[in-house]
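Late entry, written up from scratch paper. The run itself happened at the end of the previous shift, but nothing got recorded in the book at the time, so transcribing now.
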Amino acid sequence: MTVTLITGGNKGIGFETARQLVELGHTVYLGARDEERGGKAAAELGARFVQLDVTDDASVNAALATIDAAEGRLDVLVNNAGILGDGPLSGPKALLVFDTNAVGVVRVTEAALPLLRKSSNPTVVTVSSSMGSFWAVTNPERPESGLSAALYSASKSAATMLTVQYAKANLGIKFNAIEPGATATDLTAALGIGRPAAESATTVVRLATLGPDGPTGTFTDELGPLNW
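Output as recorded:
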């Protein structure tokens, strides 16, 4: 049985990704900061809850230790947790957004690597965004060119680059970044855009269920590779 960890799994794309992977037979560990909300979400889906705050090293390490003790390996990691950081810019807000959206990817991935290396088909999916693509935000034919989210965009650009660099450094593990599509979630409420989270989750699930010969080091959406 495939063992999967999803960060930020108690709502939105993470929750729907967990739902679909549980339905496919994965043992899903649903990571969330809030124990009450995360536990409730996991119980609803038939997943297993682990308290996991991607901005806290102790929380991340404890979550991976729990999975190690129960499973002895990790097959799939979905780096989904993220925040928008809309409104006026400030240093503290920038630190928080980058800590969550980019540094959080490093924290969780580094803690997960020893368990991923014990898998016969290790896969890491990072939920990124075409808002972090220079090509997309400067292309008047793309909707991203009309949206402004400086910290989110910059941090997602970093998350995509981290994906490429991790893929280069870990040839036995697939690392891919996904633009899941504009999705109606708490995160995008300020932008007033998006389709149902369940639809976008299918793009994440596709990368989370790649076979051993699947691609690595890519940035894609549901239609294929994206420029960035």
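The chain has one domain: 3-225.
(Scratch paper discarded after transcription.)
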